[in-house]
Write a structure and sequence with these properties.
Layout (H helix, E strand, L loop, with lengths): L5 E10 L2 E11 L4 E5 L6 H8 L6 E6 L2 E2 L4 H7 L1 E4 L11 H8 L8 H11 L1 H4 L11 H13 L5 E5 L7 H18 L2 E5 L3 H7 L2 E6 L2 E7 H5 L4 H5 L3
Parallel strand pairs: 3-8, 3-9, 6-7, 7-8
Antiparallel strand pairs: 1-2, 1-4, 4-5, 9-10
Helix pairs in contact: 3-6, 6-7
The structure holds adenosine-5'-triphosphate (ATP) and magnesium ion (MG).
Adenosine-5'-triphosphate binds next to strand 2 and helix 1.
């Protein structure tokens, strides 16, 4: 058995009186794809943001065996990339400039190779390298946000709601590119997704979160067949 890449132990997030995440523990192995599903307000985004160290939290997060410092820049440098909810791109920068912004902490010489990998997976982006990102369609902006997350060469890519606001057809396109990107590059994936069925088809393991806690966890295929899935997912 390989050592986990990401280990979360007793993680808690609190906003004043609101306990958004309550002592959550789980692990992600290298190269593994994990989905987090659950109703609105379950604490899914808070969990990803806490791991990325952009919101304060209690508990322990270990990455590649080391305690993860509470410093977002260090987290990126260590190999964790977060594509936040709402596909934020720099609208006035070109597609190419957005991709380079994702690589800002890197000093290596492999940028061209990674740029080529990204444009192969997202051909829509390669046709629009010199176009400003604000003029892209919603689906193209989501692809760009994911591609930019990849440009920091993460070992773990975290993506919050990749299908939000996308048509079913674009959701399928974005999801399959995301899965191919992480699988071909051996990157672990931690994905929050409203579209539970789609998420469970695209990942190895999954967790259902509700009211800040993990209610169900297991192999994605087993969870998809679980009798309690619908009621938990709908917030019961
Ligand atoms: N900055 C904040 N200040 C205060 N409360 C917050 C803040 N961010 C989130 N919350 C609260 O924490 C809880 C969890 O929110 P969170 O955004 O993590 O849920 P979520 O599972 O991502 O929901 P959604 O599916 O709607 O994106 C909610 O009750 C929310 O209102
Ligand atoms: Mg959220």
């Amino acid at each position: 058995m390989s050592a986990p890449l990401l280990e979360v132990v007793g993680l808690g997030v609190r906003y004043g009186m609101v306990e958004a995440v309550r002592s959550v523990s789980f692990a992600v192995d290298p190269g593994q794809a994990m989905a987090i599903i659950g109703p609105n307000g379950a604490g899914k985004s808070s969990l990803l943001n806490a791991i990325a160290r952009i919101v304060p939290s209690s508990g322990v997060v270990r990455f590649a065996g080391e305690a993860l410092p509470h410093a977002p820049d260090r987290v990126v440098a260590l190999g964790i990339s977060l594509v936040p909810e709402g596909r934020r791109v720099f609208p006035r920068l070109t597609v190419r400039e957005n991709l380079l912004a994702g690589a800002y902490l890197r000093r290596d010489e492999d940028l061209d190779r990674d740029m080529a990998a990204v444009t192969e997976l997202f051909p829509r982006l390669s046709e629009r390298m010199r176009q400003s990102a604000g003029t892209l369609s919603g689906g193209e902006q989501q692809m760009l946000a994911i591609a930019r997350g990849f440009m920091s060469r993460p070992r773990l890519l975290m993506v919050d709601e990749p299908s939000l606001g996308l048509s079913p057809r674009l959701t399928t396109e974005v999801m399959s590119a995301l899965v191919r990107l992480t699988r071909t590059q051996g990157i672990a994936l931690l994905m929050v997704e409203q579209n539970a069925r789609m998420a469970l088809r695209s990942t190895d393991r999954a967790m259902v979160m509700a009211s800040g806690s993990i209610r169900l966890a297991g192999a994605a295929a087993e969870l998809a067949a679980h009798p309690d899935l619908e009621s938990l997912y709908l917030g019961g």
